[in-house]
Amino acid sequence: MNEDRLKQSSNIQQFLKMLKVLTFSELKARYRQTFAGLIWVIVNPIAVFIAHAVVFKIILKIDVNNYFIFLLSGILPWIFITSTLSMGINVFVQRGDLLKSFKINPFILLWSKVLDNFINFIIAFTLLLIGLSFLGEVSLSGIVFLPVSILILIVGTYSLLFVLSIAQVFYRDVIFVNQFILSLVYLLTPIFYPESFIPEDLRWVLIVNPFYSFIRPFQICFWEFNLTLFINSLTQPMIFILGFNCFGYFQWRKKANEFYLRI
Amino acid sequence: MNFILESNSPILEVRSLDIGFSVEQHSQFNLRDQFVSFVKGPLNSIWKTKEIHTVLKDFDLVLKKGDRLGLLGVNGTGKTSLCRTIAGMYGKRRGVTAFGEVRAIFNTEIGIIPELTGEENAHLLCSLMYPRTSKEEQKRIVEEALIFSELREFQYRPFITYSKGMKTRLFLSLVSALPCDLLILDEVFDGADVFFNDKITARVKKMIHHSGAVIFVSHSIEHIRETCNRVVVLHQQRKAFDGGIEDGIDYYLNNCGPMQ
Questions:
Q1: Rg (CA), chain B
Q2: What pTM, to 2 d.p., does this model score?
């Protein structure tokens, strides 16, 4: 029993060690190719944030307290999730040669995409947060709970990527269907307008929206923090995470042979 | 750090292993076609006929320290599938027990991140292939592999610009750096030029000598003869022969041709 545990812990250590090396190498490769690459991944979310801020706050004059903070804590996690999915869904197909060359845990490739995007997200978020703190909008009362909300965001994004990337191996248009679905879900996700704007009889769309459930705890930490609300917001993403991982795992177990034939 | 087991202890036990792939008849390879097929015939789309394509049936194998097994069989007899199953790439399989570290190589022209330099890819490959070794040890392996592969002067060039042969040289030099309990080499000697091939063959043989057991897949009878001390022939979804080299090669050549 102890031997099994030791082996398991050593496997986890090895996985984390490999993940660290792979993630930093990917970052290095991307930023070496072009310095503009580094600028782009940070400027892109900042530009998206500014465009939304101008349209909704200045042009449409949306009436929401601390709107910039609300927008920042919703739109940046959304960009993190969507860019991770668009970069990661095809990773098994793209790196098929590598996966077939020697034994390597395929999921390390997914985690490395998640972490790579997470680092970009954190840099852009921090820069904007510092900028907004000069406007006096930032309240840090929920900061203690930030690690939990970040964990939900990261693991939730990974869970979605896990299911979709396996599906992509078997159905090569999943990546395009995903883009289409994201463009619809974007409008239905309260990240640039608050949840209270949605009529009561339409609130069910939030229950079936995994993206929002992963973003919500993070959003609460920065915008109008309330402990009860925060705790309540944790159940839904956990159900999604459990569901996606169970589904992905069973699909993987069932189709592991075919997986290597199709990549 | 390696985990070479004591002599006479089995390194691999395979009992009654079946390998098959589920093949869905008229299966769709994209969601759009799947959707069209569902609209056309919802019931047929849900209850599709699933066919199992059997690759190997009731396969048994025990490898002990010192066994250098040559796996022979025509294309499509399941050599690679068997090796992948033993390596654990299809997940844990009932009937397959490997005692110790298994290292399996199926392709030697691969770079992890081709945009990085050859040296960086060597480091990356080394950390993925030898996760148990220390940083210093990995550095030593990479240094030694770059010298052995004669690619020192190209080490700072992007891996993507390497020729097929250069990639093979680097990969084989890294792979052959450390022995392991069970080494699986699936057609890995193609690609390098004839001069380097001699050099790397000698090095791989040395590693094979220090490894616990080896499964060697090749269509080159000469390589099998030089490297192995036992042959298994796969034919018509079964283990058709298990025994000495020359008898195994004879069996393969006389019984596994297209008209047999």
A1: 21
A2: 0.88
